[in-house]
Amino acid sequence: MIRNTAASWGSLARAFHWVLGIAIIGMLAYGWWMNHVPARADKFFYRSIHADIGYLVLLLTVLRLVWRGVNPTPALPAEMPSWQRIAARVSHGALYAVTILVAMLGWAHSGARAQDYSSFFGLFHVPKITSPDKAAADAYEDRHIFFAYVLLALIVLHLAAVAFHYFVRRDRVAARMIGANPADRAA
């Protein structure tokens, strides 16, 4: 089933989740590696690839939010305390917001650099949203890195909640993103 149900995420929502999850974690690791590699002549190449994948992450995140907006959100277990429901909503909202913020700061950084990263895999140029300015580029980059660490902390919190629901509570919260509810298949 492509669409979500009241009990389970649909295959497209799950695909968005896993592709974006892997891409974002990969981008965080790649970004850390890029900034800790000694200066080298091909550093621009690595940063350009990081920017290209960042544009894709931004696009997929927006598409995921649109898809989520036109589909039902599976209900949380009825026995879940209200504070956990609120925490789930706030943490998911923060994950989306910070993912978009990190990508937008990276895009702003790209345009503010004299040698920008606007070439999308050599196919076309992504429009700039900022003008070249070294001081602004440095500020955007600093904020991009800071919020990337905030995003990493949110991901760790998300994974801790998944482990809590899967191993401690043993409810279907984590299972809904792994596979469909057997009752949904019969419907």
Automatic annotation (TrEMBL):
Record's Pfam families? Ni_hydr_CYTB
Kindly report the protein's main subcellular placement as a broad class: membrane
Q: How does it sit in the membrane?
A: Multi-pass membrane protein
Alphabetically ordered keywords of this record: Cell membrane, Electron transport, Heme, Iron, Membrane, Metal-binding, Transmembrane, Transmembrane helix, Transport
Which is an annotated GO molecular function term of this record?
heme binding
InterPro entries xref list: Cyt_b561_bac/Ni-Hgenase, Cytochrome_b561_oxidase, Di-haem_cyt_TM
- Domain (Cytochrome b561 bacterial/Ni-hydrogenase) spans 9-179
Entry keyword annotation includes Nucleotidyltransferase? no
Signal peptide region: none
Compartments where found: Cell membrane
| Transmembrane annotation, as ranges | 12-33, 45-66, 86-108, 146-168
Question: Does the record carry Ribonucleoprotein as a key word?
Answer: no
Q: Which cofactor is essential here?
A: heme b
Provide the GO biological process annotations: respiratory electron transport chain
Which GO cellular component terms, listed alphabetically, does the Swiss-Prot or TrEMBL entry include? plasma membrane
Protein family according to the UniProt entry: Belongs to the cytochrome b561 family.
Query: What name has this protein been given in UniProt?
Result: Cytochrome b
Supply the source organism for this entry.
Answer: Bradyrhizobium pachyrhizi
